Amino acid sequence: MNSLGAYTRNRILLSLFIIFAVSVFAFLIVHLMPGDPVRAVLGIEADEAAVQKMREELNLDKPFLTQYWLWMKGIFKGNFGRSLTLNTDVGELIGRRLPVTLSLTIPALIIAAIFGIIIGVICATNRGSIADQLLTVLVTIANGVPIFWIGIMMIYLFGVLLGWLPLMGYASPFESFVEYLRKAAMPVSILAIRPMAEIARQVRTNMLEVINQDYIRTARAYGLSERKVKYKYALKNALIPIVTLLALQARDVAGGSVLAEQVFSIAGMGQLIMISVLNRDFPVIQAIVLVITVIVVFVNLLLDISYGWLDPRIRMTARKVIN
Question: What is this structure's pTM?
Answer without folding.
Answer: 0.74
